[in-house]
Amino acid sequence: MDDQQALQYIYAQPRFGSSPDLTRMPPLLAALGDPQQKLRFIHVAGTNGKGSVCAYIAAMLQAAGYRIGLFISPFVLDFRERIQVDGQMIRQRELTELVEQVRPVLESIPPERRPSQFGLVTALGYLYFAQRQCDVVVLETGLGGKSDSTNTIDPPLCSVITRIGLDHMAQLGNTVEQIAAEKAGILKAGSRAVLYPDQPEGAMRVLTAAADQLKMPLTLPDLDRLQIKMQTLRETLFCYRDTEYRIRMYGDCQPLNAITAIEAVAACGLSVSSAAVRAGLQTAFLPGRCQVVRADPLILADGGHNPDSAKTLAALIRRELCRPVAVIGMMRDKDADGYLRQLAPLFEKIYVVQGDTPRAMDARALQTIARTYNEQVVAAQTVGQALKAALDTGRQLCICGSFLTVCDALRWLRTQKIIAACD
């Protein structure tokens, strides 16, 4: 099996199964020797901010000298972003070897009992982290929490739930209370819980009740001890509990994500100095989250795709940008109207695109929704065509709506040498 065949094998697995991954993972993991039982975890669920919180936690623990596994999704430019150790992606040959190891085991299980694509990737991650003898794995859930393939671990050092919002409603429920109940499924007796502090009221009730029922020690970051001192597109300086911190990721939510991560590290019981906390936060980074990929004229890329993420991006645009143009592509299962209602009026012109996946929303359908809020909307044939037209305006550019759109756009911009390969 070559490297491309390994990736194709992963992608060939179904996104969803007839039953939750939680019930289909145990036979696969048992046949692989239950690698997850050899590891310690910090488990992170939520609607928005999961990846950022995971990145902050991993960077702080790594700065403290621990060998840290990081399991996140989605990726932006390279599938291997999903499985990292000490900030380095799994090597492609290592990934291929893992697929070769797991494939016969997976195929020995009847098809109707096999885990989904995400379940397979979870198993690959467990194996890799166990082989690399990670001290701690920062583990992000895929969809929900209670029935997620990552919920196959023993009580973790700490469970973290980031901000709850309306997303994946077909699978998780139509209210923040229902979605919070699914996310709360990662909470386990014998562990500790940390919650993002600015939750919708109904979600907070559900989450705190779940922790109380399990008699879990619960930490809420203290918003009264948070002070934002300086915020630019490149850096945010804030003070929390009388200590000053710098972070590279932008957005009004990022200081809150950061203090949630700080409290998670404090709750997990590991020895981490204040210097390691500061150093880790300052280096933590994830691509495609309100990311400046070129300064002049400015190009901003953000893969957020639900109304909450639109609210964060809208606040950034109002404060930092001046009537930019946009390239937007979205998935059919997302709340395009709720997303565009907040953002579309802020753009001088919008170019909508359809990504190369069956899940992508048709560009004409997206154009129709966007024109409800902005008359200047053009449906482009390709991401490259949209980007060329947007760049020809000479205005600031915002690429947003999905991680797929951001991925396609960044690849085109690099191919055209408009941004450097390291951006």
Summarize the structure.
This protein is α/β, with parallel strands linked by helices and 423 residues long. Helices cover 40% and strands 16% of the residues.
Please describe what this structure looks like:
By secondary structure, this protein is an alpha/beta fold. The chain has 15 helices and 17 strands. Strands 4-3-2-5-1-6-7-8 form an eight-stranded mixed beta sheet, with helices on both faces. Strands 12-13-17-14-15-16 form a six-stranded mixed beta sheet. Strands 9-10-11 form a three-stranded antiparallel beta sheet. Helix 4 crosses helix 5.
What would the principal axes of the Cα set say about the shape? Answer: globular
Low-confidence stretches: none
Taken as a percent bin, the fraction of beta residues is 15-25%
Global mean pLDDT: 94
Helix content: 25-40%
Tally the beta strands: 17
User: What is the oligomeric state here?
Assistant: single chain
* Structural domains: how many: 2
Q: What is the CATH C level class of the largest domain, in words?
A: Alpha Beta
Distance between the termini: 32 Å
Derived structural class? alpha/beta
